[in-house]
Known about the structure:
about 60% helix; single chain; 4 helices; elongated; two-stranded antiparallel sheet
Amino acid sequence: MREDVDEYRRIRAWLIGAVHELPTGILDGQNGATIAQCAEMRDELDGFAALCERLGLADHRGFIEDCRWHFEHYAHYLGRRRHFVDYPTYVSDRGGPLSVRIPSEAHLR
């Protein structure tokens, strides 16, 4: 259980960093994510979703889905960037979330 909580905190911090510049874009570290990195982020997010399930964190579903939306759509945006004004407009035009609500981890020990 302790290992799961530590892993949860590591991935959660990484996800928060990835989406904290929204609606400007998705980050990988201090740089904008690439199409390949977005695919890696989706894979990591799948692991995080399974981890949240094991930890009973049902309140994280919205956070996970919003992150998934951006990891999928940001890759699409990057591949066709010249067709769009900017990422915030791209998100708005598709009804996506302009920000991601970060769930609390207060109930973890």
